[in-house]
Amino acid sequence: MNAPFLYPRHLQEHLREALADSPVVLIHGPRQCGKSTLARQIGEQTGYVYHTFDDDVLRAAASSDPVRFVGDLGDRVILDEVQRVPELFTSLKAAVDRNRTPGRFILTGSANVLLVPMLADSLAGRMEILRLHPLAQAELAGIRGDFPARLFKGEFKIASHQRLGYELAERIVAGGYPAALVRSTPRRRAVWYRDYIETLVQRDVRQLARISQLEALPRLLTLAACQTARILNISDLASPFQVSRPTIRDYLTLLGNVFLLDELPPWHSNRLSRLVKTPKLHLGDSGVACALLGISAETLMADRQLMGQMLETFVYQEIRRQAGWHESPVSFYHFRDKDGVEVDMVLESEGRHLAGIEVKAASTVTGADFRGLKKLRDAASERFSAGVVLYDGEVTASFGDRLFAVPIRTLWET
After folding, report:
1. Domain end point (choices 104, 131, 158)
2. Are 78 and 42 in contact (CB under 8 A)?
3. Which domain holds residue 374?
4. CA nearest 75: which of 100, 108, 40?
5. What is residue 4's predicted lDDT score, i.e. its pLDDT?
6. Are residues 78 and 20 in the same domain?
7. Which of 100, 192, 220, 287 is most buried, by CB atoms within 10 Å?
8. 8-state DSSP, 267
9. What is the CATH number of the domain that holds 39?
């Protein structure tokens, strides 16, 4: 699965729009997902000067005298890895308040800098925030791809497709990080992912928090990879460690802050009782999950349960990435009741329309696969737009009122 290093990022259009009317634009997302590349590509076209706080001298200068540092900056500046100098935020606020010219600062952050109180207080109302994910399959295919839009419109007509089969397993294991995808073999990509995790834990996580057992984090992340696409179970994750459940909870939050983990909150409705109110866990990228667990495409093809688990995370992350360039915000949830009836993903649009997605590794779909989607449809009533079972099959077909079986490959094919 060879690929060129640079790919068109569909967030480009949103970045240009934000720079046209916002003094500060923050691009945040995991390290090595392409934030700096995107910022510099746009910046080089419009005269931005680039500075990175991965440079020790620059970081020390900004930390020791943030007022002078910001005062010496030019009119259009990219500040990369800004979470490493939180002292800068108050000075940036003062500079923006003196001159609110749109597009003055592009900031990037590899940790969720929105959780840094100084940033939240300083730049509220002055900054637009854009989330960049690792590469979506749609970006790799070079198409726009907006499955959430099709989902909310219920635009699925009868059509034939070719099964992905082994190619689907390869895509899951490869993940979406540009630097991993340029490596020539699955083994070399897995090496990159393992080195990436070690570096991230040793550098970024250490800077964000003082942790007495830093060596526990890679092991905890591996255990979380075993739980990906499952209801979060803190007790199971805590059992191998000599630390408390609240401490493990804090560690998971920290791993979420560097975008290695996502917690999918539960959807709820007044029309339904006995709903599970625990979040669902997903690794931030299927390539990271597979590398942590030593999983190959062959392993996935031989273990259908594991394939289903990793496929759900792969699909969830693909749709989240596409939602990042969707015209309006999309919120993500999961649905599960205490009888075990569930929907893997519930999407809610800005207009409060709902849609549901079930993910199946199988090549066929039956009416029984729509049990959870039917319950969601009945609970949401007129708010329900469509329910889809995504599967590795050959046919797009209707299964009743606003319910469809859709091949997974349509996520990144026109």
Report:
1. 131
2. no
3. 137-411
4. 100
5. 41
6. yes
7. 287
8. P
9. 3.40.50.300
